[in-house]
Each structure stands twice: as C-alpha cells, then as structure tokens.
Design goal:
The complex is a heterodimer of chains A (about 280) and B (about 170).
Chain A (H helix, E strand, L loop, with lengths): L6 E3 L4 H11 L3 E4 L5 H6 L7 E4 L9 E4 L2 E5 L4 H6 L1 H6 L1 H7 L5 H6 L2 H6 L6 H8 L3 E6 L2 E6 H4 E3 L2 E2 L6 E8 L4 E7 L9 E10 L2 E10 L6 E2 L1 H7 L6 H14 L10 H21 L2
Parallel strand pairs in A: 1-3, 2-3
Antiparallel strand pairs in A: 4-5, 5-10, 6-7, 6-10, 8-9, 11-12, 12-13, 13-14
Helix pairs in contact in A: 10-11, 11-12
Chain B lengths: L3 E7 L2 E7 L5 H8 L18 E4 L2 E4 L12 E3 L12 H8 L9 H14 L5 H7 L11 H25 L1
Parallel strand pairs in B: 1-5
Antiparallel strand pairs in B: 1-2, 3-4, 3-5
The chains are: A alpha+beta (about 280), B alpha+beta (about 170).
The complex binds flavin-adenine dinucleotide and FE2/S2 (inorganic) cluster (2 copies).
The site of one FE2/S2 (inorganic) cluster (FES) has 12 residues of chain B, from loops.
C-alpha cells in the first residue's frame, strides 16, 4: 500500500514548522511517530501534499518534572513515557495505560502528542489526559495558547486545534490517591472495545476527590462529571459503586462497529468501569 | 514526483539512495538496497514481519517513510549473522523449530534481538509480551518462545565466557 505523493520537510524549530503550515494550509500535515497517520495515508483516506516531520525539533521532546508539575513534550514517545522512572513515581497511571497501547514496535515511535492531537476516539491518551485534567499548549500563526484536555475534543477527528497550530506540550499535576486504567481489547495491538481510567482519594472510607474518564465509548473521550459529583463526599460501598458505574455508562454513547453492537459495548463499559473503581480504591 | 537523497547506515555500511519521499523504508531496503530480509506481511503496521532495528529500537519498517530514516543506523536480519556463523537466535530458532514457513522469522529474530538487550534474562511471559507486535500464522508461538528462551540463555553464557577471557 503506497500513499499518494507528497513533499517532505524537516524544520528544526517550531516557528519554521508553523510558517510551513501557514504557507500550505489544508494541504499540509505534520507527522510525529506516523503510526496513526501513515496507515490512513496508505489507505488514501487523506490527501496530503506537504508533510512536515516534527522529529527535528528538540524543544518539543522530553519530560520535565518540577515538584508536582509535570510537562511532557509532544514528541515524547510512548516508550519514553514507560521507561521514565521519575514520571512513574509521580504519575504511575501513565505507565499503566501506555503499556496497554499497541505493541512494542508501535510504542517505540508513537508519540504522546500524536496520540492526543489525532482526535481518534479510540486513542487512549485523550481519555487519560481528561482524567488527569491536563492542559495542552499549542502554537500557531497567532501565537501560543493553552487548552484544557477536557475542552479540546469536539467530535471524531475534530478538535479545537486550528490547522496551523502545533501541539507543543502537555502538562498536569502529579495526581494523588489510588489509580487504575482498565482496558478491554480483543488482542494486543487492538484499540479498546471499552476503557476506563479512575483516580480517587478516600479518607475514612469516604471519597474526598475523584476523576473518571472513558475511552472509545463516544465520538470523543468522556469525562464522567455526573458520576464524579455522585461519588465525592460519599461513604464507599458496593451499592454506591454500582450506581456510579451506571451513571458513567449512561453518559457513554458508543457506536456499533467490528468490536460489537452498542449493547455489548455498554456492557463491557460497565465491567471496565467497575474494575477500575475497585482497583483504584484498593490502591489508595 | 520529485525525488530526494537519503543516506543511512545499513548493517554498518553507508548507503545513499534517491527516492520519492513516500517510499516506505521497507521498500527502500528491499527494492533499492536489496536487503530482502525484512518481509512485508500486512503493510498495515500489524504483523511485524517488516521489523528492523532503527537507532537501537525495533520498528516496523512498513510504517516509516524513507526520509524519516535520514542519518539512521539500521540493522536488518542480514546484519546479525551469516550462513556459516549464525547468531544465537538464528541457531536456536533452527534447533527448536522456531519456524515453519519462515515468513515471520526475520521480524521475529530482529524483534527478539533487541528485546534480549532490553531484557537479557526474561520469563516466558515477558518474551510473549516482548514479541506481541509480531504475528506468526504457523507455529502457534510455542516454539518461538522456546527458541528465544534458549537463545537468551546461550547469549548469557557466551557473555560470561567473554568476561572471564577478558579478566
Ligand atoms: C497496530 C497499531 C495499534 C495501535 N493501538 C493503539 C491503541 O491501542 N491505543 C492508542 O491510543 N493508540 C494506538 N495506536 C496508535 C498509536 O498510538 C499512534 O502512535 C498514535 O495514535 C499517534 O501518534 P504518532 O506519534 O504516531 O502520530 P502521527 O501518526 O504522526 O500523527 C497523528 C495525527 O496527529 C497529528 N499530530 C501529530 N503530532 C502533532 C503535534 N505535535 N501537533 C499537532 N498535530 C500533531 C498529525 O498531523 C496526525 O494527524 C496503534 C497504532 C497501530 C499502528
Ligand atoms: S508488514 Fe509491516 S507490520 Fe506487517
Ligand atoms: S513460521 Fe510461518 S508465519 Fe511464522
């Protein structure tokens, strides 16, 4: 499978990349790890005339941790996220979730920036970033701006990123409390049938704060605000967890595809959400 | 369409080629440079038959455009052993029937080559997770895992001997 022809550019800084994006408009696209983009180019689902490789731009690579503030450059690969010990100490859920993405070869090239900017509801990082209440930093012809992960996704492959904007970095605070990322997939290397992330704090059996987000259960990631409101301040028991799970499932809106009909996906969603809640609470 | 020059090191040798930017690395290796070790199984980033080593990492060469590999250090299955001096992995795949048709084998060998450097003393489960990006239609994986475990132990023994000789 061979994609249609394009011109290739490898700028060494962001302003050069942004000006190429501006010059070529809709005909241009950036490439990070290429592991979402190249497959769709091969299928000719997209027609790109100018391909801008971001791998020469050092300023958007690497992981920076100062106290509890974590900032990850867009071009940081999934394997770098997995292998970074300091990141594991500060936000172990990143490793847990990243190890459930694709396979070793894909994780060697796939980047966090490509994963969150792609806008594919099947990608795991967008839900994870909503879970962590992360902030995306973007740069375009009109300068830089920040967008919350919870405000970024508008629909399948539609995000609030402008055509000439490049995602620079992703930042969030080190989460505290128990955590879990549960993903049901047909095989390693498959996208989620349903996945759920939970971060929770419990004091004297009472939930003092929580965050819950879902992957591939709607055309965008789902931040379960209703379920969060329902659990915070309450004493944890199985009945409450069942009601919280149901509230999350009700907020989901999956579509039928090769991974199953809607009823099945909602059923699986219920299972991964409950599992994630329980495991996160055990880890508090 | 306009072609560009790309240079890379393949199995220790400097190579220069002129290709269209859309040329996939696996095609550059197989058709332009005639390293036919990397196979094309699916061309859709799933099967791992095209796995090579690029800058010390296993990658699927069907999912890399050739200009992305500018300046890269590439290792293919041709670079890790020769017919009269097989690499431990090649020897153990042969001994333990780690292949039947052989189509997936170069990818399996290249992935395990790197995996055993990441984890020289793995458990069977770790081997299975380590090669989870490589599919085999024939063997049922049992003998592939056996071969990799055997190669791991052989490589560890060889290294012990090497260390003694140096000391
Ligand atoms: C076999 C296989 C299985 C997979 N399984 C999973 C899985 O289970 N879960 C999962 O989450 N992902 C999965 N993926 C996708 C993989 O994680 C991708 O690597 C990831 O989605 C995209 O990252 P990338 O760096 O490869 O981006 P690319 O493919 O290079 O880019 C993706 C898109 O984002 C845009 N983009 C990239 N970087 C930026 C930036 N800095 N600023 C603005 N736009 C940008 C590109 O223009 C493109 O439109 C799988 C991929 C394969 C091939
Ligand atoms: S040919 Fe590259 S993964 Fe199958
Ligand atoms: S030996 Fe035939 S595909 Fe693996």
């Amino acid at each position: 499978m061979i994609p249609s022809a394009f011109k290739f550019y490898k700028p060494d800084n962001i302003s050069k990349a942004v000006s190429l994006m501006k010059d070529f408009g809709e005909e241009a696209r950036v490439i990070a790890g290429g592991h979402s983009l190249i497959p769709i180019m091969k299928q000719r689902l997209t027609d790109i005339k100018h391909l801008i490789d971001l791998s020469g731009i050092d300023e958007i690579k690497g992981i920076n941790i100062t106290g509890d503030e974590i900032s990850i450059g867009a071009m940081t690969t999934q394997v770098e996220l997995i292998n970074n010990e300091e990141l594991f100490q500060k936000a172990p859920i990143i490793r847990e979730a990243s190890l459930q993405i694709a396979d070793p070869q894909v994780r060697n090239l796939g980047t966090i920036g490509g994963n969150v900017a792609n806008g594919d509801p099947a990608n795991d990082m967008p839900g994870l970033m909503q879970l962590l209440d992360a902030t995306y930093k973007l740069s375009g012809t009109n300068g830089s701006r920040e967008v919350k992960a919870r405000d970024f996704y508008e629909g399948a492959y539609f995000t609030s990123r402008e055509d000439d904007e490049i995602l620079l970095s992703i930042s969030f605070e080190s989460p505290s409390g128990g955590y879990a990322y549960e993903k049901q997939k047909r095989k390693i290397g498959d996208y989620a049938t349903a996945a759920a992330g939970v971060i929770i704090k419990v004091e004297n059996n009472k939930c003092s704060s929580a965050s819950i987000a879902l992957t591939n259960l709607s055309d965008t990631p789902v931040y379960c605000n209703k379920a969060v409101d329902m659990i915070v301040g309450k004493e944890i028991d199985n009945d409450l967890l069942d009601r919280v799970t149901k509230t999350c499932v009700d907020q989901s809106d999956p579509v039928a595809d090769q991974r199953g009909p809607v009823e099945f996906k909602k059923y699986v969603a219920g299972i991964v959400i409950k599992k994630a809640l329980k495991r996160a609470i055990e880890r508090v | 369409m306009e072609k560009i020059n790309v240079s890379m090191k393949v199995n220790g040798k400097e190579e220069n080629l002129t290709v269209e930017p859309r040329t996939l690395l696996v095609h550059a290796l197989r058709e332009h440079l005639e390293y036919t070790g990397a196979h094309i199984g699916c061309s859709s980033s799933h099967c791992g038959a095209c796995t090579i080593d690029m800058n010390g990492k296993s990658v699927k060469s069907c999912t890399v455009f050739t200009p992305q590999a500018e300046g890269a250090d590439i290792l293919t299955v041709e670079g890790i052993g020769s017919p009269d001096k097989l690499h431990a992995l090649q020897e153990m795949f042969k001994e333990h029937h780690g292949l039947q048709c052989g189509y997936c084998t170069p990818g399996m060998i290249m992935r395990s080559y790197r995996f055993l450097q990441e984890n020289p003393d793995p458990t069977e489960d770790e081997v299975r997770f380590g090669i989870s990006g490589n599919l085999c239609r024939c063997t049922g994986y049992q003998n592939i895992v056996k071969s990799i475990m055997a190669a791991a132990s052989k490589i560890r023994d060889e290294e012990k001997v090497n260390k003694k000789e140096i000391a």
